[in-house]
Design brief:
Shape: globular
Strand content: 5-15%
Number of helices: 10
Strand order of the largest sheet: 4-3-5
Order of helices and strands: HHHEEHEHEHEHEHEHEH
Structural class: alpha/beta
Largest sheet: 3 strands, parallel
CATH topology of the largest domain: Arc Repressor Mutant, subunit A
CATH architecture of the largest domain: Orthogonal Bundle
CATH superfamily of the largest domain: Winged helix-like DNA-binding domain superfamily/Winged helix DNA-binding domain
Helix content: 40-55%
Distance between the termini: 52 Å
Number of strands: 8
Radius of gyration: 23 Å
CATH class of the largest domain: Mainly Alpha
Length: about 240
Amino acid sequence: MLVLARLKSFSKTAIEMNLSQSTISARVADLERELDRKMFTRNHHSVALTPAGSIFLPYAKKAVHDYEQGRWHINAIETFDDRLAIGNVNSALGNFLLPVYVDFMRAYPRISIHAAIGHSSDILQQLADGLIDVAISYRLPKSKKIRSWICVDEDFVFVVGRKDPLAEYESIHVKGLAITNLIMQDWGGAFSEWFHSIIPANRFSGCYMSSTPALAHLYVDRRQTAAPAGNRKMDRCYEE
């Protein structure tokens, strides 16, 4: 059910699970018969959860999580005392969390770390569902039952070549970004929501890139002005 709810396609679910579509259909039918409710609506193009399916989905996620946790504890009983499950946005994991994980594992060798990567909204939902213990997110949780702290402030870094006319300025106003020829590193999720709340996406005439290597290649080629966000290492590298 979980894979089908995520992919919204019997064929894609069958491929990911390495099963036939008929097997997937039979398992869904067994679940619907057991619950006496339709979990999915189907048409020729897609699959969607019914209202009953939407209600049941978080319970199914929790059941799978509890099963995996139980299996892990049985298999790791001689090696680890416990497990810490942490949800991370990709940029945080790569930029500053890995050394923290290394220090933690050295200090607590009997605790295993499970680090999952996803967008802020997905991570916070996993936290609310009890699937992870800690979330590193760009968003603050809406639930008052979840305690949160701001642990890192990131700068939005505007990168230009030394000979670019804009290099004479110490800073640039956000309105200036709307009329500048940009390569925009679009990280998606909460970052995109924040950025487009400042400058609407339809005001850009440049290029969007989700790949840092591709963005760097275009920047070095001097065809555009690049505006990566919060990546100080890249800032130093391509100013030289």
